[in-house]
Amino acid sequence: EIHIKEPTEKEVNPRLLPGELLLCEANTVYKYIQEDGSNRGTYGKLICTNFKISFLDEDSASDDNEPQFKNKIIGENDITLQCVDQIYGVYDEKKKLLTGQLRKYPEKLIIHCKDLRVFHFCLRYTKEEEVKRIVSGIVHHSQTPKLLKRLFLFSYASAAPNNTGGRNQTVMFDTLEDWRDELERTKGNVKYKAVVTNEGYRVSEKLPLYFVVPICVSEESILKFQGRGIPIWCWSCHNGAALLKMSAFPKEQDDNTSQMQKAFLDGIYRTISNPPYELLKTEDLSSSLPSLQDIQTAYTRFKQLFLIDNSTDFWATDVKWFSLLESTNWLEIIRRFLKKAIEVAECLERQNSNVLLVEESATDLCCVISSLVQVMMDSYSRTKSGFQSLIQKEWVTGGHSFLDRCNHLHKNDKEEAPLFLLLLDCVWQLVQQYPPAFEFTETYLTVLSDSLYVPIFSTFFFNSQHQKDTNMTGESLKTQSGPFKFLTVWDWSVQFEPKAQALLSNPLYAEKLKPDKSQRKTTRFKHQRQLSLPLTQTKSSPKRGFFREETDHLIKNILGKRIGKLIINSSDEPHNSFREFYDSWHSKPIDYHGLLLPSIDGPEIKVWAQRYLRWIPETQLPGGGTIATAAKILDLMEEVQSLQVKMDEEHSQAISRDVQAVPMLRNSARLSSLFPFALLQRQSIKPALPTSTWKDLEDEDDLVKRDDEFVDLSGDMS
Question: Which domain holds residue 425?
Answer without folding.
Answer: 176-503
